[in-house]
Amino acid sequence: MPELPEVETVVRGLRPVLEGHTLAQVVQRRPNLRFPFPPDFAQRLTGRRIEEITRRAKYILMRLATDGRSDPEVLLIHLGMSGRMTLLPARPNLPYLPHDHVVFVTDEGREVRFNDARRFGFMDLFKRSAMDDHPRLTALGPEPLDESFDGARLAAALRNKLTPIKAALLDQAVVAGLGNIYVCEALYGAGLSPKRLARTVQGKRAERLAASIKTTLARAIAAGGSSLRDYVQASGELGYFQHEWAVYGKEGEACPDCDCDPAASGGIQRVVQAGRSTFHCPRHQR
């Protein structure tokens, strides 16, 4: 599933094509994805100007212009496991692919196609005034790239957590947007064991971890995210951060920051926590 860096990369790719432009046509090619589309979905979007595209956690948010409406709407998009937003040139005249489920056509003739082979993604359209109460958004924790996210705020969120720190960081109410890959990488960068009890990550440990989360995400966004299975950028290019992973997917390999001998120590280890693979170096991470 695309995590925060992948979604942020898609948002940045969509902005030059969609922000400030009107949706001249919206083609909805099936009645549902993971959930049914909102009533009159395509009709409600057609003719609307996209004012701003932002991200909240792993969600893409397209704010529609007021256009005389007292309560403008927001289009929410979740990519699911395999969803991708692909940009096409003006008037491409290309046949739809089997999993092109929604097609957005701008006033310049540019197309953005939402393709989702597994159909775990979904879209919603709702009033902007209801954003704070939207069930997908209301319980989300702080954005880790915001200036307000720091060690003190992370420590406060972890203080009463009795779960391992790996599980706590996957809780979207603790930190928004993190997934399995970037939690593994951030814990490695902070030198913290994924098995450590979350409530013990206080003080300098929390400061190291908050800084590592920010650094890991920033590096991943700069590399265009990680292409794992289905993810590509809006331009169709692959992400490249998978070439910079320190531990994720590297079971048995040498840890890049210590001199342990993999033949003797086993190198980077893989354990299963709450049904998810965790990769870590027991010597480097305590």
Task: Write the topology of this structure.
Layout: H1 4-18, E1 23-28, H2 41-45, E2 50-56, E3 59-64, E4 73-78, E5 84-88, E6 100-106, E7 111-115, E8 122-127, H3 151-158, H4 165-170, H5 180-190, H6 203-222, H7 262-265, E9 269-273, E10 276-280
Antiparallel strand pairs: 1-6, 2-3, 3-4, 4-8, 5-7, 6-7, 9-10
Q: What features would you describe in this structure?
A:
This protein is α+β, with helices and mostly antiparallel strands. It folds into two domains: 4-133, MutM-like, N-terminal (N-terminal domain of MutM-like DNA repair proteins), CATH 3.20.190.10; 151-280, Helicase, Ruva Protein, domain 3 (Orthogonal Bundle), CATH 1.10.8. It is 24% helix and 20% strand. Strands 1-6-7-5 form a four-stranded antiparallel sheet. Strand 9 (269-273) and strand 10 (276-280) form a beta hairpin. Helix 1 (4-18) crosses helix 6 (203-222) and helix 3 (151-158) packs across helix 6 (203-222). It is globular. The model has no long low-confidence stretch (mean pLDDT 92).
